[in-house]
Amino acid sequence: MSKPHEDDDDYESIEGRVFFQEMHGRKINLINPTYLLPADEDESKRFNLMHRLIRFIFNGRIYVGPTKEVLQFGPYRQALDLGTGRGEWAVELCEEFSWVFTTGVDIVPIQYLEVPERCRFEMWDINIHHMPYTDGCFDLVHARAVLTGIRNYPHFLGQIGRILRPGGLVLLIEPSLMQYAGLANNKPEAAYTSGSGPRGWFTLWETYRRCLSMLGVDVTVPQHLKDLLEGTRLFEDIQDFKATIPVGFYHENKGILTVGQLQWMAYDLLLPALKPMFMSLGMLESRADRIIKDAQTDLYYGNSDFKLASHMHIVHARRNSIPWS
Ligand SMILES: C[S@@+](CC[C@H](N)C(=O)[O-])C[C@H]1O[C@@H](n2cnc3c(N)ncnc32)[C@H](O)[C@@H]1O
To answer: Which residues form a coiled coil (predicted)?
Structure first.
């Protein structure tokens, strides 16, 4: 597998299309004004950390649920990865299932340049009203950590229902935008209440959620994925799971400790990545720097009474046989 496009001097413009703009010191996509997280080397590192974290919580796999079942009985099966990022999931699925063709979609060309012949990448905005595929043409649709670029998640799910064949599988994975404190000294996990715990950490997350809401993102989607799938009436066998992810180096179980380390490293990269979003929504640079620095202090030095934790929401469901209309 070759390196992603970022190392290519000429990546800014492909066939005359320009994909990036410089915003407050980071490279941001030009196509989707809702998605204000960077598209640069540090963000690619963060995607890779999250990819590895999810492999840990899926016991070494990149999928859960009846994925093998929907992909069996080839000879050709089609999978789609919406908001593919570096394209790791799309490439690895191809490598694991030698009869599967995968398509990865993103707004920026940051994918690997050399990939299996059965894997291809397309550039378009998945907020589009009508995804450019015929009804029922995919066996599997995967969308992981894309919520922050989606303006109308129920419509997005409706389009996934349209392009999945009856019996096809959707797999959605979204990190919660809420953060939790607890786990230390056997205290039960609890959502932060004002005035307690690592204030800098929670102020940053409140600010992040407020910015996303201003950009038109429904920040409550992760915890409601199952209800939203049910609301489309296009899915059955809907299964949802919530993984609690420790943030940092404190868990006694070795496997979970690794998950906590990966999450900590990913958040270390996320914090400065939020600055362009904060500033482009009108925040003064000094205030953005202060919010990020206070959150970094809580992340780096912690607090003996409070341990940080986050949630990962995972849902899979089969397309039912009700025609799409
Ligand atoms: C947090 S990354 C996750 C990448 C990948 N799914 C993964 O889990 O490694 C979100 C990705 O979604 C892409 N994205 C965000 N909004 C999008 C949109 N409306 N259409 C297409 N891609 C989008 C971003 O460019 C970014 O690569």
So the answer is: none
